[in-house]
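Two quick folds needed for the group meeting slides. Do the first one here.
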Amino acid sequence: MVTIFLLDGNTIRQYFTKNPLQCVLMLAQYDRCDIAPYILQLSTLNLDVFRIAKYKSLSKPQQASLLPSDTIPIRPLSHLIKALGFTVGVGTVAFTAAVISDCERQSLQHRLFFSTEFLAASGLMKPNPSGTKDFRLWWSQLTDGDKCAFYLVGVNLAVFLLWKVKGLNGIMWRYFSNSFASKSLCVPMALSVFSHYSAVHLALNMYVVLSFTSVAVNNFLGPDQFWAVFLTAGVMSSFSGIAHKAVLRSPIRAVGASGAILGMLGYTCMKIPEARLKILFVPGFDFSARSAIIGVLLFDIAGLLLRFFSEVIVCMVSVSFSYNFSNIIRFRMFDHAAHIGGTLFGVFYALVGQDLIWNRFGRRVEHAYGHLRRQ
């Protein structure tokens, strides 16, 4: 996930009144070029007054345009219980539906074993070479992993295009960006997993999807279990991200499938820990899958720690020298907490979760579903 920064002067005043130190720490996160001209600057001699430099010079409509209409004051920490319940609920529903779908899929494949579609896909019946028939044959010859990857890319691309429709901006901000300072708390935790605001972010994530999905689906999960794991990892990632923001009292918004993708990456790498991986555009350098996951976790943990210490240092320096360091503080591109949550879920699922959830819980769901069908 990446973070999207949104502030206004009244929000800053409100935060500063309640907790001046926390307000300064939060401001250290904001230096994006399109937001920087509107960020408050430290006063010359003390911290008890913030001056609104460019913000006051804007008209009311211009000021309002800086914030989505659904922005609210940061929620109390108790709302994390609601978010946790949503996370558990989504995971339970996702795996229950996946088990039922897997049962139906196996039953359907058994019934269609000698059907016309099976014969055509097997090459035992000569297909019609015209248009739609060619596409159906090509699609039928793809593996389940390839199909899941194409579906995932298609959904993410569609949501990305919706971001470009100006009339939908209000809906997209409210339901497709994850924040602890939004009117909608739970639904965006799931929908933001398929949401990308930047074309570069989308392209990088979809490259990883196309690289790993077929391996995970074809060798370990199958299509139904894959969707359950992907969605649960994504929501777990979203929960980790907003929990971190809730503790920091940060209104930053996040979008992207990175947490869910890292969950799948963590799962796959733990299943084949000795597999050799390479970095794109870095020839001659490879490493084990286990090392990759350790590296990812260390990178995100370091990102969290360095962010905290950098904000404390900036606060102390700003107080001491009364200087605005907004041009020095780097833009926090990654939602490290969300990445850690998604990765750890993938590792957990590979080591113990698959047996606990898919096998044991799945058998109970399958038994209950079979009993309902017989009635």
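Then this one, please, same format:
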Amino acid sequence: MRSPFIATRAILLGLAVAPALMGAQGAGKLNRYGNPSTMKATPTSAAITPKDLQIRLYQFADDSMLGRQVGRIGNMKGTTYIAAEVKRLGLIPAGDNGTYFQVLPFHTKQYTNHSRLTANGNPLAWNKDWVAVPGSAAPKPISNVEVIFGGMQGDTTKQISAALANGKFVVVLPAAPVAAPAGGRGGPGGGGGGGGRGG
């Protein structure tokens, strides 16, 4: 198991060397964080250098990698890239079946073009009349249950109890948007957080 202390040291090292790296990049277009928007890959050396780490990070975080969402092609691309790098470094695989990977079960639930919601036989339009808010547990099939009004999201003074909601399809109105204070985010003094949705 990797030590959190080692991981923290690696992160701090990356933060500490970033300014030095920027100076070594020479003139070029920098993003809003002061880093070059792209970095050309170069062959690695035996020594681990800040520049080499930054090059690999740029490759891993590039838009072409399509993010890291589990079950999507971006996750496959990202983990394949990391596996190729550690294999090149000579690390011994300790994953499933002699690989660098461990297969973990997961599932996704989503509404499709065939998903329908009706009220008294009248169809309701997705994303106009209704939306589904994901919960912490996998959704269960719903069929022929009583539909009741549950109040407004975030307003606990007018929501129904869990006992009343049990075994029913509960419809909840979205929380009312909170207007930002005058003077921008956080008001005249700044620094405060803006409004948010209840939950």
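Slide caption for protein two: Strands lie at 118-119, 122-123, 147-152, 169-173.
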